[in-house]
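name: query_chain
kind: protein
chains: 1
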Amino acid sequence: MTPLATGRPGRPAASTRQAALALATERFLAGERVDVQAIARELGLARATMHRWFQTRELLLGEVLGTLAEERLSVIREEVGGDGADALLETLDRFNREVANTTGLPPLLAQGQERSLRILTSSAGVVQPRVVNTLESLIDAEVRAGNFVPVVLPEVLAYAIVRLGEAFMYNDALTGIRGDTERLRQVEAALLGV
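structure:
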């Protein structure tokens, strides 16, 4: 008797969306160009599959950067410990310094500054809304625990902090200056009441 086939007919998947995202992240962190076609070839995927998963290179980069930001903010907050505005400020400062020293940012900005800044800072994109949401969650946790009373709503504070961070970290990239973490810390401290 012939066993019944299980699963989908046809060729098994060569790889997964998660593997493609991991390889793109690895390339970005190494300061290499994130090439969608090269990633597809390396994973044995059709270009159409990569397109179905990510649509464009910009959205793939947004997914890489958004995921990294969410993960790093959460990990850094856990490492900082403590509570209240001081802990939030220390978390933000460490995150900002890490972003300023990320190997993949200078090559990304060099490949197309306007496009890169749009990926990083557009409120209609992937990265900025995810960073704002993650920061808002961190602020909300401190508020719920009774450790922090923000002067504005947590979502407004998170948005303001992220937008200011973008101004200090990225906007000067057009003139080759970026990563003004010292002054950014001072402004964030003022916003957090530290």
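note: DSSP finds ten helices and no strands in the chain.
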